[in-house]
Specification:
With about 170 residues, the chain is mainly alpha-helical. About 50% of the residues lie in helices and about 0% in strands. The chain has a domain of about 110 residues: Orthogonal Bundle (Cytochrome Bc1 Complex, Chain D, domain 2). Bound molecules: heme C.
Protein backbone atom coordinates (compact mmCIF):
# COMPACT_ATOMS: atom_id res chain seq x y z
CA UNK A 1 0.00 0.00 0.00
CA UNK A 2 2.77 2.36 1.02
CA UNK A 3 4.50 1.79 -2.34
CA UNK A 4 1.32 2.60 -4.23
CA UNK A 5 0.93 5.85 -2.30
CA UNK A 6 4.52 6.82 -3.16
CA UNK A 7 3.97 5.99 -6.84
CA UNK A 8 0.76 8.02 -6.83
CA UNK A 9 2.46 11.00 -5.20
CA UNK A 10 5.34 10.83 -7.70
CA UNK A 11 2.91 10.70 -10.62
CA UNK A 12 1.18 13.84 -9.32
CA UNK A 13 4.51 15.63 -8.90
CA UNK A 14 5.60 14.68 -12.42
CA UNK A 15 2.26 15.94 -13.73
CA UNK A 16 2.61 19.27 -11.94
CA UNK A 17 6.23 19.58 -13.12
CA UNK A 18 5.22 18.95 -16.74
CA UNK A 19 2.35 21.45 -16.50
CA UNK A 20 4.68 24.15 -15.15
CA UNK A 21 7.31 23.34 -17.81
CA UNK A 22 4.90 23.51 -20.75
CA UNK A 23 2.24 26.04 -19.64
CA UNK A 24 4.78 28.20 -17.83
CA UNK A 25 6.55 28.83 -21.18
CA UNK A 26 9.78 27.04 -20.26
CA UNK A 27 9.52 24.71 -23.28
CA UNK A 28 11.02 26.46 -26.35
CA UNK A 29 8.96 26.37 -29.57
CA UNK A 30 11.86 27.98 -31.48
CA UNK A 31 12.35 26.21 -34.82
CA UNK A 32 16.08 26.33 -34.15
CA UNK A 33 15.80 24.27 -30.96
CA UNK A 34 17.05 20.72 -31.62
CA UNK A 35 14.57 18.03 -30.64
CA UNK A 36 15.86 15.43 -28.20
CA UNK A 37 16.85 12.32 -30.18
CA UNK A 38 14.04 10.30 -28.61
CA UNK A 39 11.43 12.81 -29.83
CA UNK A 40 12.80 12.76 -33.40
CA UNK A 41 12.86 8.96 -33.27
CA UNK A 42 9.30 8.73 -31.97
CA UNK A 43 7.91 11.29 -34.44
CA UNK A 44 9.57 9.54 -37.37
CA UNK A 45 8.34 6.10 -36.28
CA UNK A 46 4.79 7.34 -35.71
CA UNK A 47 4.79 9.13 -39.07
CA UNK A 48 6.07 6.11 -41.02
CA UNK A 49 3.62 3.73 -39.32
CA UNK A 50 0.73 6.11 -39.93
CA UNK A 51 1.55 6.60 -43.61
CA UNK A 52 1.97 2.83 -44.08
CA UNK A 53 -1.43 2.16 -42.55
CA UNK A 54 -3.34 4.93 -44.30
CA UNK A 55 -1.85 4.90 -47.79
CA UNK A 56 -4.11 2.54 -49.75
CA UNK A 57 -5.37 4.58 -52.72
CA UNK A 58 -4.59 3.35 -56.21
CA UNK A 59 -4.50 5.49 -59.36
CA UNK A 60 -7.74 5.51 -61.37
CA UNK A 61 -7.82 3.37 -64.54
CA UNK A 62 -7.45 6.52 -66.66
CA UNK A 63 -3.94 7.20 -65.29
CA UNK A 64 -0.90 5.08 -66.12
CA UNK A 65 1.99 6.15 -63.89
CA UNK A 66 4.55 4.97 -66.47
CA UNK A 67 2.99 7.00 -69.24
CA UNK A 68 5.31 9.78 -70.51
CA UNK A 69 2.34 12.16 -70.74
CA UNK A 70 1.52 11.65 -67.03
CA UNK A 71 5.14 12.11 -66.01
CA UNK A 72 5.47 15.34 -67.99
CA UNK A 73 2.14 16.69 -66.77
CA UNK A 74 3.32 15.86 -63.25
CA UNK A 75 6.50 17.90 -63.71
CA UNK A 76 4.37 20.87 -64.60
CA UNK A 77 2.04 20.38 -61.62
CA UNK A 78 5.10 20.00 -59.40
CA UNK A 79 6.42 23.37 -60.58
CA UNK A 80 3.04 25.11 -60.45
CA UNK A 81 2.11 23.95 -56.95
CA UNK A 82 5.31 25.37 -55.50
CA UNK A 83 6.86 22.05 -54.42
CA UNK A 84 10.11 23.37 -55.89
CA UNK A 85 10.38 26.11 -53.25
CA UNK A 86 10.84 23.58 -50.50
CA UNK A 87 12.15 20.47 -52.28
CA UNK A 88 14.00 21.80 -55.35
CA UNK A 89 13.87 20.05 -58.77
CA UNK A 90 16.37 18.99 -61.47
CA UNK A 91 18.43 22.12 -62.13
CA UNK A 92 16.36 24.23 -59.71
CA UNK A 93 17.57 24.98 -56.21
CA UNK A 94 15.03 25.10 -53.36
CA UNK A 95 14.31 28.52 -51.85
CA UNK A 96 16.73 29.48 -49.11
CA UNK A 97 13.96 29.73 -46.51
CA UNK A 98 13.27 26.00 -46.78
CA UNK A 99 16.56 25.47 -44.93
CA UNK A 100 14.92 27.22 -41.98
CA UNK A 101 12.16 24.60 -41.80
CA UNK A 102 12.39 22.02 -39.09
CA UNK A 103 12.46 19.20 -40.16
CA UNK A 104 14.33 20.15 -43.33
CA UNK A 105 12.37 19.16 -46.51
CA UNK A 106 14.29 16.35 -48.24
CA UNK A 107 15.64 16.39 -51.80
CA UNK A 108 12.91 14.12 -53.17
CA UNK A 109 15.10 12.21 -55.62
CA UNK A 110 16.90 10.73 -52.61
CA UNK A 111 13.72 9.41 -50.96
CA UNK A 112 11.21 8.52 -53.68
CA UNK A 113 12.77 5.08 -54.19
CA UNK A 114 11.60 4.05 -50.71
CA UNK A 115 8.03 5.31 -51.13
CA UNK A 116 5.25 3.51 -53.00
CA UNK A 117 2.90 5.45 -55.30
CA UNK A 118 0.13 5.08 -52.68
CA UNK A 119 2.40 6.53 -49.97
CA UNK A 120 3.45 9.46 -52.16
CA UNK A 121 -0.19 10.14 -53.03
CA UNK A 122 -1.23 10.08 -49.37
CA UNK A 123 1.54 12.46 -48.28
CA UNK A 124 0.95 14.98 -51.08
CA UNK A 125 -2.82 14.87 -50.69
CA UNK A 126 -2.94 15.12 -46.90
CA UNK A 127 0.36 16.69 -45.87
CA UNK A 128 2.32 15.62 -42.77
CA UNK A 129 1.39 16.97 -39.37
CA UNK A 130 4.13 18.59 -37.29
CA UNK A 131 6.28 19.20 -40.37
CA UNK A 132 6.01 22.00 -42.93
CA UNK A 133 4.57 19.61 -45.55
CA UNK A 134 1.19 21.10 -46.60
CA UNK A 135 -1.95 19.20 -47.65
CA UNK A 136 -2.34 19.86 -51.34
CA UNK A 137 -5.95 18.61 -51.36
CA UNK A 138 -6.67 21.47 -48.98
CA UNK A 139 -4.68 23.76 -51.24
CA UNK A 140 -7.04 22.87 -54.12
CA UNK A 141 -5.13 20.15 -56.03
CA UNK A 142 -7.36 17.51 -57.68
CA UNK A 143 -6.64 13.80 -57.25
CA UNK A 144 -5.69 13.46 -60.93
CA UNK A 145 -3.14 16.25 -60.60
CA UNK A 146 -1.68 14.60 -57.50
CA UNK A 147 -1.41 11.23 -59.32
CA UNK A 148 0.49 12.91 -62.15
CA UNK A 149 2.88 14.38 -59.58
CA UNK A 150 3.32 10.83 -58.23
CA UNK A 151 4.13 9.61 -61.77
CA UNK A 152 6.74 12.38 -62.08
CA UNK A 153 8.27 11.68 -58.65
CA UNK A 154 8.66 7.94 -59.33
CA UNK A 155 10.78 8.86 -62.38
CA UNK A 156 12.52 11.82 -60.69
CA UNK A 157 15.96 10.23 -60.09
CA UNK A 158 16.31 9.79 -63.88
CA UNK A 159 14.91 13.15 -64.98
CA UNK A 160 17.56 15.43 -66.51
CA UNK A 161 17.73 19.19 -66.00
CA UNK A 162 17.00 19.68 -69.71
CA UNK A 163 13.89 17.44 -69.60
CA UNK A 164 12.55 19.22 -66.55
CA UNK A 165 13.08 22.58 -68.20
CA UNK A 166 11.29 21.52 -71.40
CA UNK A 167 8.36 19.87 -69.59
CA UNK A 168 7.73 22.84 -67.30
CA UNK A 169 8.12 25.44 -70.07
CA UNK A 170 5.18 24.12 -72.11
CA UNK A 171 2.18 26.46 -72.20
CA UNK A 172 -0.49 25.75 -69.59
CA UNK A 173 -3.37 23.41 -70.45
C1 LIG B 1 6.52 24.64 -47.27
C2 LIG B 1 7.46 23.65 -47.70
C3 LIG B 1 6.97 22.46 -48.49
C4 LIG B 1 6.27 22.48 -49.67
C5 LIG B 1 5.74 23.69 -50.44
C6 LIG B 1 6.15 21.10 -50.07
N1 LIG B 1 6.74 20.28 -49.15
FE1 LIG B 1 6.87 18.26 -49.24
N2 LIG B 1 7.70 18.21 -47.38
C7 LIG B 1 8.04 19.32 -46.64
C8 LIG B 1 8.52 18.88 -45.36
C9 LIG B 1 8.99 19.77 -44.23
C10 LIG B 1 8.46 17.46 -45.35
C11 LIG B 1 8.77 16.51 -44.21
C12 LIG B 1 10.21 16.23 -44.05
C13 LIG B 1 10.45 15.09 -43.09
O1 LIG B 1 9.58 14.22 -42.98
O2 LIG B 1 11.49 15.06 -42.48
C14 LIG B 1 7.95 17.09 -46.66
C15 LIG B 1 7.78 15.78 -47.06
C16 LIG B 1 7.41 15.40 -48.33
C17 LIG B 1 7.39 14.03 -48.81
C18 LIG B 1 7.71 12.80 -47.98
C19 LIG B 1 9.17 12.53 -47.98
C20 LIG B 1 9.54 11.35 -47.10
O3 LIG B 1 10.75 11.12 -46.94
O4 LIG B 1 8.67 10.67 -46.55
C21 LIG B 1 7.00 14.09 -50.11
C22 LIG B 1 6.82 12.90 -51.05
C23 LIG B 1 6.77 15.48 -50.46
N3 LIG B 1 7.04 16.25 -49.35
C24 LIG B 1 6.36 15.93 -51.70
C25 LIG B 1 5.96 17.25 -51.96
C26 LIG B 1 5.28 17.67 -53.17
C27 LIG B 1 5.00 16.79 -54.36
C28 LIG B 1 5.01 19.00 -53.01
C29 LIG B 1 4.22 19.90 -53.95
C30 LIG B 1 2.90 19.41 -54.39
C31 LIG B 1 5.55 19.40 -51.72
N4 LIG B 1 6.10 18.31 -51.11
C32 LIG B 1 5.52 20.68 -51.23
C33 LIG B 1 7.93 20.63 -47.04
C34 LIG B 1 7.24 21.08 -48.16
Amino acid sequence: MRILAVIGALAILVGIGAAVFFFGGFYSVAGTAEDPAVVTWALTRVRTASINRHADDQPPASINLNDAASVQAGAKEFAEHGCVNCHGAPGVKWAKYSEGLHPDPPDLKDVVGELSPAQLFFVIKNGINMTGMPSFAQAGAKDDEIWSIVAFLKKLPGVSEADYKTWTAQPSH
